[in-house]
Design brief:
With 456 residues, the protein is mainly alpha-helical. The protein is built from 18 helices and 4 strands. It is globular.
């Protein structure tokens, strides 16, 4: 195993890889509950959807470990699942066609990856912009953690219905302030703050497993205080009864997707997933010191092939677009450097198939895992030091990437905006020679996303 995963070469150890894999699994296992719940709005039954989600994560993580040998977990994307469930609702598209769109986008990923186009485009992105991806994703993770734990909450939280104003059409008007500080008297919010402080202190003291220890201690304190709920059962057999996958597996409609009217859907799924993967790989590569001197992810084609294959698998078994997960940064922080960590996460997802009733209430303990996302966000923001603040043609696109990613709550929106603004500013400054062909292609694709796609 040491030779296969090149542990010595990458500065890893079996202990660190196992610890990293377990930590990554814990911080992203919420997808087992959240993804089926979101996709149920598209008509995909929750029980089979849960099995499909777990299967996809297990297969994706295993492929990442064996093919790409990277400490990166793979699972159905947040954001893309909302697009599948809600973004396509107005178009009257059935869930079978939505799954078909997922499969086709994965097939396109695979073809352009094998042809070398995807890697060429990824490596054409300027170094400064790549580091802005890491900063944006770090702040995005921190915001998710703050919101999930209740430290930050929606401005309308706690307001009576009559306090919400509506326009002439009866639709609610956006509040003047989008978010506000949460209820700091809430014991669960205080627990989350305690968890973050504990993790920070442990990281300062360079304690191995700082995040995992922080999650466990916070969860135990919360359990002792009576927060959370007992599971209705411990185990359940997958592929039977409420978890029978046959209701959705192999029900995708591919031929119905291959028509001109579906082009905006396919374009949106393609660009969202492509850029999510690019941004995530770059951000995680920076966190694990995997990037080369040009800021490129070495052998980027391998994780991209895994991403494409898993995406196709998602459509076949009945779930949304999949790819590399930003929560992998928690495992990397614990010392994971190879695909062994991804295999550990894959094994835990596979085991989860038999413990779905037990896992569901555990994943409601946001006060326990949320602080880990904030802590990792703090660490990833350090990449801002590698952005050239003295050159506005570099800093402005980086700034646009970061703020659009964070304030639209969508990684792809930030990446597309930055990739469009960068060449425009270079041209306006008379520095067209600094651009490359790949950068121009990326800018055109991103502009097409806003002009012809379905941004959300």
């Amino acid at each position: 195993m040491t030779a296969f995963f090149k542990l010595a070469e990458r500065g890893g150890s079996v202990r660190a890889e196992v610890l990293g894999g377990v930590t990554t699994y814990i911080t992203m296992a919420y997808i087992i509950v959240v993804n089926p719940a979101i996709l149920s709005f598209a008509g995909i039954p929750a029980g089979p959807g849960t099995v499909a989600t777990i299967l996809t994560a297990a297969v994706g993580c295993a492929l990442m470990g064996l093919i790409a040998n990277r400490p990166i977990a793979v699972a159905p994307y947040m954001g893309e699942n909302a697009f599948i469930a809600f973004g396509l609702a107005a178009l009257g598209i059935g869930w079978e066609q939505r799954l078909g769109a997922v499969f086709v986008s994965g097939a396109v990923f695979l073809v352009i990856t094998l042809l070398g186009v995807r890697g060429w485009l990824a490596n054409s992105v300027p170094t400064g912009l790549k580091h802005s991806f890491a900063v944006g994703i770090g702040l995005f993770l921190a915001f998710i953690g703050l919101y999930e734990t209740g430290i930050v909450t929606s401005f309308v939280t706690g307001m009576p219905p009559q306090a919400l104003q509506a326009n002439a059409g009866g639709l609610f008007i956006a509040p003047a302030v989008p978010v506000k500080i949460g209820n700091l008297r809430d014991p669960q919010v205080l627990l989350a703050i305690l968890g973050f402080v504990l993790m920070t202190v442990l990281m300062i003291r360079k304690v191995r497993g700082a995040l995992l220890i922080g999650i466990a201690v916070t969860a135990l304190i919360g359990g002792a205080l009576g927060f959370g709920q007992w599971p209705k059962a411990i185990t359940a057999l997958p592929f039977t009864g409420d978890y029978d996958l046959s209701a959705i597996a192999f029900k995708l409609d591919v031929t119905g997707v291959l028509q001109l009217s579906f082009m905006p859907v396919l374009l949106t799924l393609f660009l969202m997933s492509f850029l999510d993967t690019l941004g995530t790989l770059t951000g995680l590569g920076a966190a694990a010191n995997l990037l080369d001197e040009k800021g490129n992810f070495p052998q980027v084609e391998r994780p991209m092939i895994v991403d494409a294959l898993t995406c196709m698998f998602s459509g076949v078994v009945g779930t949304s677009t999949s790819g590399a997960y930003i929560e992998s940064a928690t495992g990397i922080q614990e010392g994971a450097r190879t695909g062994m960590a991804a295999l550990v996460a894959a094994a835990l997802f596979a085991i989860s198939l038999f413990f779905i009733p037990l896992i569901e209430p555990l994943q409601q303990l946001r006060f326990a895992y949320g602080p880990a996302l904030i802590a990792v966000g703090v660490l990833m923001v350090g990449s801002v030091r590698r952005i050239d603040f003295d050159d506005l043609t570099e800093w402005v696109p980086a700034f646009v990437t970061i703020v659009m990613m964070l304030f639209t709550y969508n990684i792809a929106n930030g990446l597309t905006a930055g990739l469009v603004v960068h060449p425009l500013l270079k041209l306006a400054a008379g520095r067209a020679r600094e651009l490359n062909a790949g950068m121009l292609v990326m800018a055109l694709l991103c502009a097409a996303y806003y002009l012809f796609g379905l941004p959300h």
